[in-house]
Amino acid sequence: MTHGFVKFITLSGAGCTLGAIIFMAFFAKSTRLKSLGRLGFLPGCFNINEPVLFGTPFVLNPLLTVPFILIPVVNTTLA
Description:
Blueprint: H1 2-9, H2 18-27, H3 31-45, H4 50-55, H5 62-78
Helix pairs in contact: 2-3
């Protein structure tokens, strides 16, 4: 039972980037982010999120960093 709980918390790797990948692939206005989302979709389904982490400006962009940090906390609280 604990294994399922831990798997739910870490869904799609560090920072739970699967939601960001889906948003970038289908709703982003930037062609760069849209193509990165499409390229990172299949690896993101298998918890490989390095293309998204290293391809997007998560470090110095508060609009991306705050959800990246808060979504795992929300997933843990909901689980």
